[in-house]
Design brief:
This protein has 341 residues and is of the alpha/beta class. It contains 17 helices and nine strands. It starts with a helix and ends with a helix.
């Protein structure tokens, strides 16, 4: 299920108060989707990494209840864990809407997973009952991806709705455009979509490309580092093969026409012949388009094949939906109705 579908499914299950487990490869963005769902629903998010807990952390810590100054045997009371407390240290109030996110759940030892039975099925921990407005989402990596995982006991697995999370090129590109990932990184992934997420568990590489690691690359390429240092850091983030392809792609882009050249002479500025260069140019132009210059930019992009025009306009509208109301866009749409249908 692609990320946008996972998001829709989570919103439905949160509304139904149905516990859900999201399975996916490492670095794919599972946690980001959960955080975005909480943000869209305007709900507080409590992120708990079960792999870092002991069973007593989940169940609570026993303390002796002294009714008076005389020591006598009394039943132990259990203090609720911090995960059911708000930021002010008090219990989560019954009127608060929130999501309890149990991340890396199947990386936790089975004793910790067993301690979660009562929480997930009965919505309580000892005597403490979770408020009705708190939904539960869990996530974890797949055992086939050589991640640190423990088999989930069947009674616990049966308490969840299970969702398989798949990396999806268009969903990532939309996210990257909206979150200011550099045009060069976006263009490269468009050109080489297979490198958005590439991991062979048989080889178990130290560094491999994933949505998470390309975000790290974005931070590297925007830091004005020495070229040799930049190459080594990119290699250490996504691996040597993807680094080599990215650097070659970036070198091609350096010799392309500038945005200013295109805006000054959209009908005369040279259009590159290689697909890599066209991807780079369309992506470089998408954030430069405005209602005042869209007509000129489209004159230039319109000299490319239709697939590049569509790529450019999709990215443009992600940045500013109002551009769909401009004369330049409506004229292009009228000429390309078959593409839009």
């Amino acid at each position: 299920m692609k990320p946008s579908q996972v998001s829709s499914a989570l919103k439905h299950l949160v509304a139904k108060q149905r516990p859900v487990f999201v399975w996916g490869p490492p670095g794919a963005g599972k946690s980001d989707v959960v955080r975005q769902v909480a943000n869209d629903l305007e709900m507080n998010l409590r992120d708990v990494r079960l792999s870092l807990l002991d069973p007593i952390d989940l169940k609570g810590f026993p303390v002796v209840d002294k009714e008076n100054d005389q020591m006598a045997w009394v039943p132990a009371n259990f203090l609720p864990p911090m995960m059911v407390k708000g930021k002010n240290g008090k219990m989560v109030p019954n009127e608060e809407h929130g999501i309890l996110f149990l991340d890396e759940m199947n990386s936790a030892p089975q004793a910790v997973q067993a301690a979660a039975y009562q929480l997930i099925l009965n919505r309580c921990i000892g005597d403490y009952v979770l408020p009705k407005n708190i939904a539960m989402i869990a996530a974890g990596n797949r055992s086939g991806d050589r991640a640190v995982t423990h088999q989930m006991p069947s009674p616990l697995a049966n308490r969840f709705v299970h969702i398989d999370y798949d990396v999806h090129m268009d969903d990532w590109y939309n996210w990257a455009t909206e979150n200011n990932i550099s045009p060069m990184v976006r263009a490269f992934i468009r050109f080489r979509p297979n490198l958005l997420h590439s991991f062979d568990p048989k080889e178990n590489p130290r560094a491999f490309p994933s949505p998470r690691s390309w975000t790290f690359v974005n931070d590297i390429v925007g830091s004005n580092l020495d070229s040799a240092v930049e190459m080594e850091l990119i290699k250490g983030t996504v691996g040597e093969g993807p680094m080599t392809e990215y650097i070659a792609f970036a070198n091609i882009a350096k010799d392309l026409p500038t945005v200013d050249q295109i805006l000054m002479a959209p009908e005369k500025t040279e259009v590159p012949s290689s697909p890599a260069a066209k991807y780079a140019l369309c992506t470089a132009l998408d954030k430069k388009a405005t209602k005042d210059n869209l007509e000129r930019v489209l004159k230039y992009v319109g000299r490319m094949e239709t697939e590049y025009q569509v790529l450019f306009l999709r990215s443009v509208l992600l940045n500013d939906r109002a551009l769909s109301q401009t004369k330049a866009f409506t004229e292009w749409a009228a000429k390309n109705q078959a593409v839009l249908m």
